[in-house]
Amino acid sequence: MLGFGPFELILIVVIIALLFGARKLPELGKGMGRGIKEFKQEMHEPSPPRPQVTDIPSQRLDPVTGAPVSTESTVPASDRRS
User: FRET pair for 74, CA 20 to 30 Å: which of 5, 24, 31, 56?
Assistant: First the structure.
């Protein structure tokens, strides 16, 4: 697979130092350490209970406007034929 010897590791460290600068490396290390620590803490903490989802009756939506459409007839009661 990947055989990283001492020469390859030194080369990688030198390239990183050139890209970020020697002064930024401690800050990068601290940031990565904090991120890993927070990630591990979150993995061990139980997640808060999720709220129970209840069935909500679905509404019909107008396909053009996306507004809810009344399920009742739009014809006034006086104009309806029985």
Answer: 56
Contact between residue 29 and residue 22 where contact means Cβ atoms under 8 Å apart: no
Rounded average pLDDT per 10-residue block, the chain, 82 residues:
80 84 82 91 80 68 80 58 56
**Domain residues of the chain, as ranges?**
7-44
Chain Cα centroid distance, residue 4: 34
Is residue 61 classed as helix, strand or coil in its secondary structure? Answer: strand
Whole-number Å distance between alpha carbons of 8 and 16: 12
Spatial contact of 62 and 69, defined as CB atoms under 8 Å apart = yes
Comparing CA positions, the residue from 63, 59, 82, 54 lying closest to residue 71 is 59
Residue indicated by tokens 């930024």: 24
